[in-house]
Write a structure and sequence with these properties.
The complex is a heterodimer. By secondary structure, chain A is an alpha/beta fold. Chain A has 2 domains: about 190 residues, Rossmann fold (3-Layer(aba) Sandwich), CATH 3.40.50; about 375 residues, no CATH class. Chain A is about 60% helix and about 10% strand. Chain A has a 7-stranded mixed sheet with strand order 2-3-4-1-5-6-8, sandwiched between helices. Chain A has a two-stranded antiparallel sheet with strand order 7-9. In chain A, helix 13 runs parallel beside helix 15, helix 14 packs across helix 23 and helix 15 runs antiparallel to helix 17. The longest helix of chain A is centred in the middle third of the chain and has 50 residues. By secondary structure, chain B is of the alpha+beta class. Chain B has one domain: Roll (SH3 type barrels). Chain B has 2 helices and 5 strands. Chain B has a 5-stranded antiparallel sheet with strand order 4-3-2-1-5. The longest helix of chain B has 9 residues. Chain B is globular, with a radius of gyration of 11 Å. Classes of the chains: A alpha/beta, B alpha+beta. The interface between A and B is medium-sized, with 35 and 30 residues.
Chain lengths: ~575, ~70
């Protein structure tokens, strides 16, 4: 009786695309107990039986070399062997390397169906594979598929019941590669094709000069697209909804509650010029949902859309290679660029993504650098709004200062943090057309994750500020920090409120600077300081969950120090 | 090794874990590889093994000894 189906395969063989094809919308992403490796689970119907499908992390062998590979192997060993079927997903364009894992699965006496994915692409490359021959040689069903278009998936499902295990002897590495060599000779035929444009691009993108040019072009275009989509989502959809539909309701509520009541203060907040101002009223029903849904969510959507595209096309590993050299100087390796890029969207997933880095030292350096030197989309949007009206020069200035901090701090951390940083050893996948289905599912999961994580915290942040305002406690804080803020940073003492607020929600904080009528220099310093301090309460929580209290404390002290030094320097250097 | 040059892996040093990882990715003694590129001084190296492109950090690449074909 089959109860579970495991999807196993090397990285970049289209495993998640097959997974999306097999399962419906009910997909659960969960962490494997005791580790931080994410596992995707879903269900599909076979006959009238619901079967669980589990998408294991990509692995090259059953002798685990990394944390995610360990999880893959131990999950396979947990279940009774007669209750599971393994779908070994194989990239037809790279049959030789992929067969290694398949042979190991067969030797482990598992019931296997081989899914020969990317058959259409193999044809393009001039590779033809004799599937029947392969089936005979392996002794298990082999189904050619093209998961992106859905071709062959039906047959794959039908043939799951044919999966069987044949007891085999364990062989050594060498014997396995020899066996693969003879299989390849019998079933695979290559016809020579001229280099396609794509192959030329693939080659160019791993060479130093052309690769750098391509990378800069791609990053610039991505940045512009994120901004374009984000801005339009706000001005064409979010703002009109809030102003045309939501505001009239709030005005009625405001009248019912009466401006002086406590509930009015709590829910609606202060009226600015006797109107509800979504950015400045600071009520639980006004500012809180506006920040979440109209200011941040649109950018989150556009950012993850573009990031998902970059991931699925296969650009990120190439970027990792080009930046490996630079990142080595700061104690990371090229792959750490992925958490950093994620951090540019929102620091929370950025810090979560440091899980994929191998050593603890690397994770600490990456997480600290992300929370201090990488501004999230929400903050960037607010900085554009704040400084953009003076000149683009100041906006660029903020990025430049952050970049300098990032590199200097990285070099210092690299020399002081204990532990080791492992070396880069990764496969660079060919460029691929992304599947819309997977793209959409991934976007959906990420946005849901963001809303679950951020919404309560935005609410809490606004609540705290709301209460501080109501009980007039801000004056106390202002007095406490005024010497530093005024003496060292040259900011008026009212800016304290915004800076303290910055620890809860950056976007709210920048909004609070607006009514203070600061000059350009003051705004510039305030914006840099806000960018340096931790982006929001959620980042604190995630940092704590991922790296523990001691590391959070360390990172926080580093942050205070960096803010102090940078603020003072900028104040005395800028005229 | 120069760009686009082919060679055969002559020897691999390094611990058992690294050896295993190399093995599962198809890097083993006697295997033919082609160097694709090299980024900067002491930067990573891209090689082609079979049909896959692998990137090795500088010190990982140093562990592989190649017998050049020409």
């Amino acid at each position: 009786m089959i109860k579970k189906i495991f999807l196993v395969g090397n990285p970049n063989v289209g495993k998640s695309v097959v997974f999306s094809r097999l399962t419906g919308v009910q997909v659960i992403s969960s962490n494997y107990a005791g580790t931080t490796v994410e596992i995707m689970r879903g269900f599909f119907k076979l006959g009238d039986q619901d079967i669980e499908v589990i998408d294991l992390p990509g692995t090259y062998s059953l002798e685990p070399g990394s944390k995610s590979e360990e999880v893959a192997v131990s999950l396979l060993n947990e279940s009774a062997k007669d209750e599971i079927v393994v779908i070994s997903i194989v990239d037809a364009t790279n049959l030789e390397r992929n067969l290694y894992l398949t042979l190991q699965l067969l030797e482990a006496s598992l019931s296997v169906v081989v899914c020969l994915n990317m058959c259409d692409e193999a044809k393009h490359h001039g590779i033809s594979i004799d599937t029947d021959g392969l089936e005979k040689l392996l002794g298990v069903p082999v189904v050619p598929t093209c998961a992106i278009t859905g071709l062959g998936i039906k047959i794959l499902i039908e043939r799951i019941k044919d999966a069987k295990f044949i007891s085999r002897e364990k062989s050594s590495h060498r014997e396995r590669w020899q066996k693969i060599g003879s299989i390849i000779e019998q079933v695979q035929r290559l016809t020579h094709r001229h280099h396609t444009l794509r192959e030329l691009l693939e080659d160019a993108s791993v060479r130093p000069f052309s690769g750098t040019l391509i990378a800069i072009g791609v990053m610039f275009t991505s940045f512009e697209i994120v901004r374009f989509i984000g801005e339009n989502l706000i001005s064409k959809i979010a703002d009109p909804i809030f102003i045309n539909f939501y505001q009239p309701l709030l005005i009625k509520l405001s009248l019912i509650l009466g401006e002086e009541s406590f509930l009015h203060h709590l829910l609606i907040g202060d009226l600015i010029n006797s109107k509800i101002d979504f950015k400045q009223s600071l009520g639980l029903l006004t500012t809180a949902p506006y920040i979440e849904f109209a200011m941040v969510l649109p950018y989150i959507i556009s950012f993850y859309l573009v990031l998902g595209l970059l991931e699925d096309i296969g650009i990120l590993p190439r970027l990792a290679m080009l930046l490996d050299n630079l990142l080595h100087r700061i104690g990371l390796h090229g792959f750490a660029i992925i958490p950093v890029l994620l951090g540019l969207g929102c620091n929370v997933p950025g810090i979560l993504a440091t899980r994929n880095l191998e050593s603890r030292r690397e994770r600490f350096i990456a997480a600290t650098l992300i929370s201090i030197g990488v501004p999230c989309v929400a903050l960037q949007a607010m900085i554009f709004g704040l400084l953009g009206k003076f000149s683009g020069f100041y906006v660029a200035g903020v990025y430049l200062v952050l970049l300098v901090i990032w590199v200097v701090l990285g070099v210092i951390l690299n020399h002081t943090a204990k532990g080791y940083s492992p070396e880069l050893l990764v496969e660079i996948p060919p460029y691929r057309l992304p599947s819309l289905l997977t793209l959409w599912k991934k976007l959906f999961l990420r946005i849901r994750g963001f809303l679950i994580e951020a919404a309560p915290l935005v609410l809490l942040g606004v609540l705290i500020i709301n209460m501080l305002l109501y009980f007039k406690l801000f004056d106390f804080f202002t007095g406490l920090f005024a010497p530093v803020i005024k003496g060292l940073f040259g900011l008026p003492k009212e800016a304290v409120i915004a800076l303290v607020m910055g620890l809860f929600r950056k976007d709210v904080a920048v909004g609070m600077l607006m009514p203070l009528a600061l000059n350009v220099k003051e705004l510039f310093i305030a914006a840099v300081l806000l960018a340096i301090s931790f982006p929001c309460a959620a980042t604190f929580v995630v940092f704590f969950k991922e790296l523990g209290f001691k590391d959070l404390l360390k990172a926080t002290l580093i942050m205070c120090f960096v803010a102090l030094v940078t603020g003072t320097l900028l104040n005395f250097v800028i005229r | 090794m120069k760009e686009k040059q082919k060679g055969t892996i002559f020897d691999i040093s390094g611990g058992a874990a690294l050896q295993n990882k190399f093995m599962s990715m198809g890097i083993y003694k006697g295997r033919e590889i082609t160097k694709i590129s090299h980024i900067g001084l002491k930067g990573p190296v891209a090689i082609k093994v079979g049909r896959s492109v692998l990137v090795l950090g500088h010190s990982v690449a140093n562990k592989i000894v190649i017998e050049s074909h020409d």
